[in-house]
Amino acid sequence: MTKTLTLSAYQIAAQRTDQRRGVDDGLAFPLLGLFGETGSLLSEVKKKQRDPVAYIGYEETVLEELGDVLWYLAAVASRAHLSLDDLAINLDRDLAAWQAVSDDTMTFHALDAGAHPVASMPSPDFEKALLRLSAEVGLLMTDYSAGRLSRNRSALEGRLIAVFRALRTAAHEAGVPLSRAANSNLTKINDRWPEARTPSPLFDVNFPQSEQLPRRLDIKFTEVMRNGKTAATLSRDGLLFGDPLTDNRMEDDDYRFHDIFHLSYAAHLGWSPTLRRLLKVKRKSDPLTDEVQDGARAILIEEGIATWIFNHAMRLALFEGIETLDYGLLKSVRRFVTGYEAENCPLWLWEEAILNGYTVFRAMRTHRGGTVGIDLDQRKIWFDAP
Fold first, then answer.
1. C-alpha distance from residue 307 to each of 125, 127, 248, 348 (Å)
2. CA distance 76 to 86
3. What's the pLDDT tens digit per position in 140-167?
4. Nearest alpha carbon to residue 315 among 272, 259, 358
5. pTM of this prediction exceeds 0.85
6. 10, 102, 193, 248: least CB-packed within 10 angstroms?
7. What pLDDT is stored for residue 242 in this prediction?
8. 31 pLDDT band (50/70/90 cuts)?
9. What is the CB-side half-sphere exposure of residue 178 using CA atoms within 13 A?
């Protein structure tokens, strides 16, 4: 965690990742986000109260939710043409002593050194502090919906200062410096929306070529009948490989084409234990890599991810027309692969792998067969109709 992160630098980064900027520059969207994330924070505390022993990951989730509240606060301020510095300079001042000139070199570390100390662990007053935060956000929403802030910059600034002050207090009572929440939030948003999208090196780049996933691959999918059921076969250079796949379901849903997802994971992430097994390119020169990264458990995890996402996608028209995926889905995928090399793949790359894979899958459904091509060097997947 860096102690040099300034409020100004954080706000610039937050503004860059505001996906609705330029489309909807009003305050309504970030205010709703601020309200929602504050509610999520309260929900986490409620879960902890309900089942304090069984609820795992409480501290991590609170840290993340505090960072999300901070992000939306920064978004509201940016759209209102206010800086976090404008707010922070007056956090510890009475109204009569407010300063109009802010300091764009102020760090979160300096902000944490303000009037309210950071607890060593969540204190009994954490819940009270959260209720205060929710009350301040509620007053902000009430004034906004009543139109009292639209032409009153001072009133809006006053409300945001009160929210910021309550947020800092809540964070400190949770045992979380705002500097830690801000740095953690930056890590999260850069994982999803980095300034430069540069994929990491392929995982097998230092292995013999015979143990590498092919850098360019074309796989033909063909529908056939097997024992009265429709199945899909795969072929490469005219030679069949793998087993014919049916949907394994009472009602057809075309999951027989799901190897497209493995091809997309390979193309974008450089990761697919399933494809390694099918193509016989497991990394046997390193027994540990062969057992862990390319073994049966890794294959089951990949198949589980493909099936779980498919069930989710079926409720969303196979992601047609969707350009970004829910953060919760991507985070769950990351948890699936914890302890495996794919854990190191950034969320933006997972998002590309999933969405581009489903673009090809929808085309395959339309044409009932065709050829899927992948290029690992270019991190691309495409479809050629039969």
1. 44, 39, 12, 20
2. 13
3. 999 999 999 988 989 999 999 999 999 9
4. 358
5. yes
6. 248
7. 87
8. very high
9. 28
* 237 C-beta neighbours (distance < 10 Å), count: 8
CA torsion 6-7-9-15 (nearest 10°) is 170
**Domain spans in the chain, listed from the N-terminal domain onward:** 7-192, 209-384
Q: Residue 120 and residue 21: Cα distance in Å, rounded?
A: 38
| Length of the chain measured in residues | 386
User: Please, are residues 130 and 65 in contact by the beta-carbon 8 Å criterion?
Assistant: no
d(CA 179, CA 251): 52
Amino acid at position 46, single letter? K
Cα atoms in the Cβ-side hemisphere of radius 13 Å centred on 124 = 0
Contact 79, 26 (CB under 8 A): yes
Task: For 3-27, write each residue's pLDDT tens digit.
Answer: 789 999 999 999 998 877 767 778 9
Which of 376, 271, 366 has its CA nearest to residue 384? 366
Give, in degrees to the nearest 5, the angle at Cα 212 between 211 and 215.
155
